[in-house]
Write a structure and sequence with these properties.
Strand order of the largest sheet: 1-2-3-4-8-7
Largest sheet: 6 strands, mixed
Structural class: alpha/beta
Number of strands: 8
Length: 152
């Protein structure tokens, strides 16, 4: 059986990408600093959020972007010094009926299936529908999406 996840991770690593699995990094541009971190897949990985948030480089006054595959993790994220959580997982529900929203959403993607959400005074969540599918090989009334977020 092909392990797509392991193959994808290896391909990304071989291409020079740094996978942020239970770790983070500081990014500095001029005088501006942001902290970017990622938590491994909650359902099929080995997530260790404590490792991310115990990092001594994590300054609560620095803008923090957290990558978490499952959007409904915001219950935990809003307790932490995080400004923006970027997620996916839901495929926007993949099957939608006009006026009703998603018919089927996976675990940990039911509350925030797609779009921009203000979770708390500090935390904003963006759930991307992505390009892929799950279960069915096509979406229905759920447009695929690639999003570009510009930090200014």
């Amino acid at each position: 059986m092909l392990n797509w996840s392991s193959n994808a991770k290896q391909c990304l690593a071989n291409s020079g990408f740094r996978l942020l699995m239970n770790e983070g990094t500081s990014i500095k541009r001029g005088q501006d600093l942001i902290y970017l971190s990622g938590i491994d897949d909650l359902l099929s990985g080995t997530p260790d959020p404590a490792k991310v948030f115990k990092n001594p480089r994590l300054d609560p006054d620095v803008f923090h972007i957290l990558l978490v595959h499952e959007p409904d993790y915001t219950k935990e994220t809003e307790k932490r010094p995080v400004d923006l959580q970027l997620s996916g997982h839901s495929h926007g529900g993949q099957i939608r009926l006009p006026g009703t929203g998603p018919l089927i959403t996976p675990a940990l993607a039911r509350k925030y299936p797609s779009g921009l959400y203000r979770i708390s005074e500090r935390l904003t969540l963006y759930t991307n529908r992505g390009l892929g599918t799950t279960i069915l090989p096509f979406p229905l009334y759920c447009r695929p999406e690639v999003t570009m977020i510009e930090l200014i």
